[in-house]
Specification:
This protein has helices spanning 7-16, 96-111, 118-136, and strands at 23-25, 33-35, 39-40, 46-54, 70-77, 82-83, 90-91, 145-151, 154-163, 166-173, 176-183, 192-194. By secondary structure, it is an alpha+beta fold. Strands 2, 3, 4, 5, 8, 9, 10 and 11 form an 8-stranded antiparallel beta sheet that branches. Strands 1-12 form a two-stranded antiparallel ribbon. 32% of the residues are buried.
Length: 203
């Protein structure tokens, strides 16, 4: 009898098959750790994923969105401009802006105003997503400030911004671009580190 793989197992497998290292908060963080689904291209190559820390940032879970405390670290593979798997197009190179966009859109996806009428939510999300894209495409602009945090113990510069929904930052480490977003906790004083054992994170 054929069995179907558990969705949690498939998610963990996506992290294990990646050809780049994953990053999360360092050992100073002692709370719950979990995984979000990985992002893949058309041929199944893993391109990015997110390690979560604290409350899972879903509008469907308790505590309520305004009371949740979490930090999500986004790891994006460093990729050059390359041909698509079917040979019909070209994939753009990844960059710090890619990590900033994924972090910004990730924050929006879990912090939209739950009291908003359903027919207004998509308009709000479209508008805020466009703003997040513009900000990610202008990392040297006035919408961002500088923040230095340790990554594997090495002081590393990040682009950082705050909003009423939380904060977002983006930078780079060896072979990857890093983004992060959070709510209910400060980005100042955080430390990032390469994940030694991804199975320590709950799918």
């Amino acid at each position: 009898m054929e069995t179907t793989a558990d969705p949690a197992d498939r998610m963990a497998d996506g992290y294990l098959k990646a050809d780049f290292p994953w990053y999360g908060l360092d050992e100073a963080f002692s709370g719950d750790r979990w995984l979000a689904p990985v992002g893949m291209n058309a041929d199944g190559t893993v391109e990015h994923g997110s390690t979560g820390h604290g409350d899972e940032p879903s509008v469907k879970v308790e505590p309520t969105p305004d009371n949740r405390r979490f930090v999500v670290v986004v790891t994006v593979a460093e990729r050059p401009v390359r041909r698509s798997s079917d040979g019909t197009g070209v994939l753009e190179a990844t960059s710090v802006a890619t990590a900033a966009w994924l972090a910004g859109s990730g924050l929006l996806s879990c912090t939209w105003p739950t009291q908003m009428e359903r027919h207004l939510r998509q308009n709000w999300l479209d508008q805020q997503t466009a703003i997040a894209w513009d900000l990610a495409d202008s990392l040297e602009g006035p919408g961002w400030s500088a923040l230095t945090l340790p990554v594997d113990g090495v002081p590393t510069p990040f682009h950082y911004r705050e909003s009423e929904y939380g904060w977002v930052m983006a930078g780079s480490a060896r072979g990857v671009h890093l983004g992060a977003f959070g709510r209910g906790t400060s980005a100042y004083g955080l430390g990032l580190a390469q994940v030694k054992d991804i199975t320590a994170y709950r799918p």
